[in-house]
Amino acid sequence: MRALVYLGPRRMELQEVPDPVAEPGEVVIDSIVSAVCGSDLHGFREASSRRIPPLVMGHETVGRIGAVGKGVDPERLGQRVVLKPILSCGRCDACRAGDINRCLEGRLVGRDLAGGFAERFAVPAPAAVPIPSELPDDVAVLTEPLANAEHVTERAVREGDVVFVIGSGPIGALMVRAAFLHRARQVLVTDTNPERLAFAVAQGAEEIPSEGALEAVTTATDGVGVDVVIDAAGFEATWALGLQAIRPGGRIFEIGLGAPSGMVDFFTVLGKEATIAGSYAWTDQDFARSLELLADGALTADGWLTRVPLAAGQEAFEDLADRGRPFKVLLELG
Amino acid sequence: MRAAFMTGVDEVEIREDTAPPELDPAGAVLKVEACGICGTDARTFFNGDPKAPPPWQLGHEPVGVLESVGPDAVLPSGVSLGDRVFLGSILTCGTCRWCVEGFQNLCERHLLYGYDPYPGAYAEFAAVPPIATKNLIGLPPELPSDLATVADPFACALNGIEQLDVRLGDGVMIVGTGPIGCWQAVMARDRGAARVYMTDVSSERLKVATDAVGHLIDDAWVAGDDNGVGELMTRTDGTGVERISVAAPAKAGQQAALEMAAKRATIVYFAGLPKHDPISPLDMNELHYKELSILGAYGATHRQYRITMDYLDRRQDDLARVVTHRFPLDRIAEAFETIRAGTGLKMVILP
């Protein structure tokens, strides 16, 4: 079968590799489409300690069950599924409290084992989640990224909040939608790339230009500041902007992978009694709710996805890494 | 091995030549050190239960040493062969929505250890079926086995207190002074309640309770004709208290709690009502005009079991007083009689 193999920073190669086998308790997913996530891109751009080459990345995948291992219901053959890519131990305290994203032995498909940028890949059966027949591939493939947004906004946003989303990639745009679903009153959004900003604005957010962003936020909130910042960029400059933009008592949620460390003005943190929280992935609950929301038609993502054949994967990664476009790439596999 | 069998309603028999449990390849076997008697065991013994077809081996609050572990058994992190462990009795599927969200107490398919098809632990050895291995919890080395058997009801009491959300400075009323009420009084105090009161309809049970935890509470009285409301009102200048736990299976106590509540108070109905008579007449205008919150509590989650072990270890001097009686296995009938007489709180069998 064909697979797009990550060989090192900025190097992807289409290779012929052996077909996977469904071990006991596993299924083989025949991929239909796999979307590229910002974290895959992060791996592509620079050597990452979490993505060790050679690796088949990809954790946002819709496919069909092509083989079942021993102990898996054979009725599942042919079932259309979305990949739920966190594999957790299921027996540590975090797992048993429902926080599978905090599992110490947790693994991610497409990072710790071969993932969806291949025609086929094997995963434990519960990681292949059946999807309603009327839900199109192009929508179901957003289950995983929407679950990320759900995980943040479910904690971050309360009724009537003013929310400021920094970074308007697909995750930022999903945050805008999810913030409204959690009854935010007003959502502001900024990005240095005006093309990307348009997608978040289409979800109902107010545009804040990246030049003079703080002044624009101040004006938009009558000098009060925002209740919540969701930072889907994650650079020193966006941490500072978020901290300046919140009202006293405000909350900042970090989900961007821009920079690992840098300066933060902690006098402002304590002076404003700010809360800064991190967010990593999602729980089973978030994933299930995300799938339900998509099935209910809660998200309109017109024009988000650009379909690219697997063979053009390297170029697609380069475009995303260097030019921030297209908005979200969908690799065609099936 | 020696084991106690319930051979009929109110009948128990000690058998010396019972075959020890077989090791399931995916299960384990415990050498039982202690096993508590739960109110459910007592009800089963006094009334019979279709899930305990005689002759039946009861006992679902066991502490013991992991004597053998099957080759395919999946044990929780940190638990291994030879460890002293507690076995949580609520057997959960681990896959339903409530299990994966961390509310194992609300599992859609839960079963109870010690009831058909899983014989209990009033015996020298007890089987740990595959479904129960995830319920094994390691014990802190300094925590005595007899006290550790109370982990089950203690964790449930903790669930009730978490629902009650006692805050620093609250006035707390505990209605019903069995083991649950006593532990909740201790927990309320530990959470910084300014005043903790207890009441019970039985003066004997109240006496036993105040002997056990009286040094940690402010006052206690017999419920009497007005179900204890008047006594509370004189102690609070007529305002009532912010937090009330009803740890008694009594409609009168549920109604009294509404009257004892201060405005915006929270009430937890911890105890269930008898299954044949579950409808309670309550003055809902108390709820309406005082903006009360009424919550339920049932069982305990895995997280609460974990907290329980540390809690029992740390506060064992105060909490151990609630274990009032210990009996060897061959005197288990006496333990049931003591429960019937109401002269003790928590009984533990030491096989």
Q: Give the CATH architecture of the largest domain in chain B.
A: Alpha-Beta Complex
Unreliable spans of chain A are none
* Quaternary organisation: heterodimer
Biggest interface, residues from each chain: A-B, 14 and 15 residues
Share of β-strand residues of chain A:
25-35%
Shape by Cα distribution of chain A: globular
Taken together, the total number of domains of chain A comes to 2
Radius of gyration of chain B: 20 Å
Following the backbone from N to C, one meets helices and strands of chain B in this order, namely EEEHEEEHEEEHHEHEHEHEHEHEHHEHE
Report the major sheet of chain A: 7 strands, mixed
Can you tell me the residue ranges of chain B where pLDDT is under 50 for at least 5 consecutive residues? none
Structure explained in plain terms:
The complex is a heterodimer of chains A (about 325) and B (about 350). Chain A has about 325 residues and is α/β, with parallel strands linked by helices. Chain A has two domains: about 1-140 and about 300-330, Medium-chain alcohol dehydrogenases, catalytic domain (Quinone Oxidoreductase, Chain A, domain 1, Alpha-Beta Complex); about 145-280, 3-Layer(aba) Sandwich (Rossmann fold), CATH 3.40.50.720. Chain A is about 30% helix and about 25% strand. Chain A has helices at about 40-45, 95, 135-140, 145-155, 170-180, 195-200, 215-220, 235-245, 265-270, 285-295, 315-325; strands at about 1-10, 10-15, 25-35, 60-70, 80-85, 85, 105-110, 120-125, 130, 160-165, 185-190, 205-210, 225-230, 245-255, 275-280, 305-310, 330. In chain A, strands 3, 4, 5, 8, 9, 16 and 17 form a seven-stranded mixed beta sheet that branches. In chain A, strands 12-11-10-13-14-15 form a six-stranded parallel beta sheet, with helices on both faces. The radius of gyration of chain A is 20 Å and the shape is globular. In chain A, about 50% of the residues are buried. Chain B is α/β, with parallel strands linked by helices. Chain B has two domains: about 5-155 and about 300-350, Quinone Oxidoreductase, Chain A, domain 1; about 155-295, NAD(P)-binding Rossmann-like Domain (Rossmann fold, 3-Layer(aba) Sandwich). In chain B, strands 3, 4, 5, 8, 9, 16 and 17 form a seven-stranded mixed beta sheet that branches. A six-stranded parallel beta sheet of chain B has the order 12-11-10-13-14-15. The interface between A and B is medium-sized, with 14 and 15 residues.
